[in-house]
Specification:
Length: 195
């Protein structure tokens, strides 16, 4: 019953005390039977020593059936060629010889990827965006410089106003003292008038 069951990497890791990174390395090296379903790797519920390598890699995921990208189809066809080479070893060759034979494992062609750096440098849209960014930086720098100059001017005006306030407070205090001295005289005069 355990031969037909498939479990996730986490479950397998806990059950057989194998780290998930080891399992991923074995999957990458095609040393364990695995499937990729719903965005997760699942492994046959067997100890690592009992795994027989099956290169058919059938995708049983209901979401992906009938909807494969051209790249995925080429990968499946490559795996099909590999499985045919491994399923039918020539007479006189042992299983170990089949796996090490370079003829049995055709080289997988990597898809050519365009250099994006050339594309980015040549793109007029990127160039115009870069120019706009430079202009915005210049304008922002000018605005900052103007604001700093305004701040310095305002600081000077504040210090002038503080000095003026201090002078006015001193003058006010002096006037209050003079008035305080004169006030009793005025009070006395006003009192005399009423008598």
């Amino acid at each position: 019953m355990t031969q037909d069951t498939w479990i996730t990497l986490a479950e397998y890791s806990q059950k057989y005390k194998v780290s998930q990174s080891t399992l991923r390395r074995r999957i990458k090296g095609k040393k364990v039977e695995y499937r990729f379903e719903n965005g997760k790797y699942i492994i046959k519920n067997l100890p690592l020593s009992d795994h027989t390598i099956d290169y058919s890699f059938k995708d049983d995921s209901p979401n992906l059936k009938g909807h494969r990208s051209p790249q995925h189809q080429s990968i499946v066809s490559t795996h099909t060629h590999e499985s045919q080479a491994f399923d039918s070893p020539s007479e006189g060759q042992g299983l170990g010889e089949v796996f090490t034979s370079e003829q049995a494992m055709p080289a997988v062609e990597k898809p050519e990827v365009e250099e994006t750096s050339d594309y980015i440098e040549d793109s007029p849209m990127i160039a115009s965006a870069t120019n706009l960014l430079r202009e915005i930086k210049k304008a922002y720098g000018l605005v900052l410089q103007e604001k700093q100059e305004q701040i310095l001017i305002l600081k000077d005006e504040i210090s002038n106003l503080q000095m003026l306030v201090q002078i006015l407070e001193n003058e006010n205090a002096r006037l209050k003292q003079e008035q305080h001295i004169k006030v009793p005289e005025l009070k006395w005069e006003t009192e005399l008038e009423f008598d």
